[in-house]
Amino acid sequence: MLPAAKGLASVLASSASGALACAGLRLANAARQASTSTTMSQTQQQARSFAASAMPAYQPESSGHIAPHGGSLVDLMVREKDYKRAVVDSCHHKQECSDRNACDVELLTVGGFSPLEGFLNKEAYEHVVEHMRLPGSDLLLGLPVVMDTNNEAIVEGQRVLLTYKGQDIAVLEVESKWVPNKALETKQCYGTTSLEHPGTLMVATERGKYYIGGKVLGLDLPQRVFPCATPAHVRADLPADTDVVAFQCRNPVHRAHYELFMRSLHAPNVRPGAVCLVHPTCGPTQVRDSCLPLAGLA
Questions:
Q1: Which of 50, 185, 201, 246 has minimal Cβ neighbours within 10 Å of its Cβ?
Q2: Residue 189: pLDDT above 70?
Q3: Got the DSSP string for the chain?
């Protein structure tokens, strides 16, 4: 267990294109990063603080552990060979995923983004950007999970074969295709439209002109240089009826992290015999972060 920045609008006008083993536990839901260059209005800050604090009571499973976000762990993998082949043959388009896209596809497939069963459609995307919650269920979702494209030919109702480094990883059933308001998205999600913020920079320079949303059918998990346990595997390895103190680390663990892990096990609200789950984030890194292999294997 223990082991100077141009504005976004100008970039969009000049450009046409404009962890991984998540345990499925409701530990931290894509925390918002604050920016010193541009701040939200006081009303927005109060509303979003309230949303983050209005989390419903945790519901335990028979194992004594917190249930996955939404109540159950999603599994989108297609395992029957004939059906998998039929799904691939029914696709109208093929799209190669970026590293970030591939991570999102994998997290959707294995339930790391439970209760999502695919990329957000237009309605859900706009609701999450505005309210930080899923429509209908009112479940917290800190950031919109979207698939982007520059393919003009894709239309709603079609299927898109998603590949990564030549490997077929999933099929996306397109429910919605739209041109997102990226300036609004970054302002709401990151509190700024300045490209000094890495999230804003990503949305402005990495993502395509359109977003496409819909159900995802998993075909295969991306082949990686480091092992990635699925949420189901991680949960199965946790001892029953035992408190789990979990930490998500973006960078390799250092001495201060270790001391924090050890001392947390003796916190007054933690029962004796608790275990510490260190959950490293794997995937594309920010500038000045450790390289991907090192960050992933920390």
A1: 50
A2: yes
A3: ------BHHHHHHH-S---TT----SS---PPPP-SSS---HHHHHHHHHHHH-PPPP-B-TTSSBPPTTSS----B---HHHHHHHHHT-SEEEEPPHHHHHHHHHHHHTTTTT--EE--HHHHHHHHHHSB-TTT--B-SS---EEE--TT--TT-EEEEEETTEEEEEEE-SEEE---HHHHHHHHHS--BTTSHHHHHHHHTS-SEEEEEEEEE--PPP-SS----HHHHHHHSPTT--EEEEEESS---HHHHHHHHHHTTSTTS-TT-EEEEEE--SS--TTSPPHHHHHH-
The token pair that represents 188 in the structure block: 């709401």
Contact assessment for residue 189 and residue 211, using Cβ atoms and an 8 Å cutoff? no
Per-residue pLDDT tens over the stretch 113-146: 999 999 999 999 999 999 999 999 989 999 999 9
Interatomic CA distance for residues 115 and 64, integer angstroms: 20
Give the global pTM: 0.77
pLDDT of residue 226: 78
Look at 36 and 96; give whichever has higher pLDDT.
Answer: 96
- Report the phi/psi class of residue 34: left, alpha or beta, with left for phi > 0 and alpha for psi in -120 to 50: beta
Which of 15, 45, 18 minimizes the C-alpha distance to 187? Answer: 45
Checking if the pLDDT of 23 tops 50, the result is no
Separation between Cα atoms, residue 279 and residue 244, nearest integer Å: 12
- Cis-peptide into 115, omega within 30 deg: yes
